[in-house]
Design brief:
Blueprint (H helix, E strand, L loop, with lengths): L16 H11 L7 H14 L10 H11 L7 E5 L4 H8 L4 E5 L10
Parallel strand pairs: 1-2
Helix pairs in contact: 3-4
């Protein structure tokens, strides 16, 4: 019997992924604003008529940028779920704001 589920830790290869990885390594930039990031940016701008697209290398980088754009100041409080990734809070602490962790009420799913 064949298991058709994608394993949690094993990369799923469906096509030319390894070829593109080899290309990225050959181009000499496998992180940040490399060849494929620039291609993706051009595609999104053209396909959707977007004036300027900015891709981030990670959700952590996106959260840090969002916090800066929110103009949070030292001492500002930001409510966060108590069960979250470290980068959710560290992006807030990075600008001097204060994360406030909260739980939810199981009967309403609202803040507790």
């Amino acid at each position: 019997m064949t298991n058709s589920l994608i394993p949690f830790n094993k990369p799923f290869i469906a096509g030319k992924e390894l070829y593109y990885i080899a290309q990225a390594v050959t181009y000499g930039n496998i992180a940040g604003d490399g060849h494929f990031t620039q291609e993706c940016t051009r595609f999104l701008e053209k396909e959707f008529g977007i004036h300027k697209t900015l891709l981030t290398p990670s959700c952590t980088a996106a959260l840090e940028m969002a916090v800066m754009l929110c103009d949070l100041q030292p001492g500002d409080e930001v409510i966060l779920p108590s069960y979250t990734f470290v980068s959710t809070a560290s992006s807030i602490v990075r600008v001097g704001a204060v994360p406030v962790f909260v739980d939810i009420r199981p009967d309403t799913l609202n803040l507790n």
